[in-house]
From TrEMBL:
Domain of life: Bacteria
Protein name (database record): TetR/AcrR family transcriptional regulator
Keyword Transcription attached: yes
A Pfam short name: TetR_N
InterPro entries: Homeodomain-like_sf (IPR009057), HTH_TetR (IPR001647), Tet_transcr_reg_TetR-rel_C_sf (IPR036271), TetR_C (IPR011075)
Organism: Streptomyces silvae
Statement: the UniProt record of this protein carries the keyword Protease: no
Gene3D superfamilies listed in its UniProt record: Tetracycline Repressor, domain 2
Domain HTH tetR-type: start-end pairs: 14-74
DNA-binding region: 37-56
Keywords: DNA-binding, Transcription, Transcription regulation
Length: 199
């Protein structure tokens, strides 16, 4: 195979991979991992079953890549909103404003990591590890926001619990209101832990 042919083959594989992952994002998040088979992913993506298994040798491999891709996309969306705010305190409360927008989306089904961990965490250490990584990264981000506002470290864990509880409650109740309630609670916690009012 020539270099040109190899490059063309890689482009085809890359395009097929994106089609498969887009389908997996929609199906796994919308219906749950256990309810979706590889044939459903094949049908939704338009990629042949043979090519699908060339890209992802097993459903478990696809599930892990689904989680990794979702982690990156989710955190980029969150930080893009939060970092646009002008002050450290506003960046903390902006987390909950962003959650409200996410909860308001018509396809919101809760946190994909909580959902997938609930389905597979007990039997897949790799799924458990991906969920733990995502949650730790979120907590670490909150810790950086808290530190930038000059507030005590303990506040980060408290904010994380508010956010995680809001994700679950919003999914079950079908309303974005838990984000507002969590934001109000976050403000009360911030009042209890005064910062340095950094510019």
């Amino acid at each position: 195979m020539t270099d040109r042919e190899e490059a063309a083959r890689e482009r085809v594989l890359d395009a097929a991979r994106e089609l498969v992952l887009d389908a997996a994002q929609e199906l796994f998040y919308g219906r749950g991992v256990q309810a979706v088979g590889m044939d459903a992913v094949r049908s939704a993506s338009g990629v042949s079953l043979k090519r699908l298994y060339q890209l992802f040798p097993s459903k478990d491999a696809l599930v892990l890549e689904f989680l990794r891709q979702r982690d990156v996309r989710w955190r980029l969306r969150l930080t893009g909103h939060v970092e646009a705010q002008p002050t450290p305190d506003e960046r903390i409360t902006a987390v909950f404003d962003w959650l409200h927008g996410w909860f308001s989306e018509p396809d919101y089904r809760g946190c994909a990591f909580i959902n997938t961990f609930g389905e597979m965490g007990a039997v897949s250490s790799e799924v458990a590890a991906e969920a733990q990584h995502h949650k730790k990264a979120f907590h670490d981000y909150l810790a950086r926001l808290v530190a930038a506002a000059g507030r005590p470290d303990a506040l980060a864990g408290q904010l994380a619990l508010l956010a995680e509880g809001a994700m679950v409650t919003a999914a079950i109740s079908g309303t974005p209101e838990p984000a507002r309630q969590a934001r109000d609670a976050a403000r009360l916690l911030m009042q209890a832990h005064p910062g340095t009012d950094l510019p």
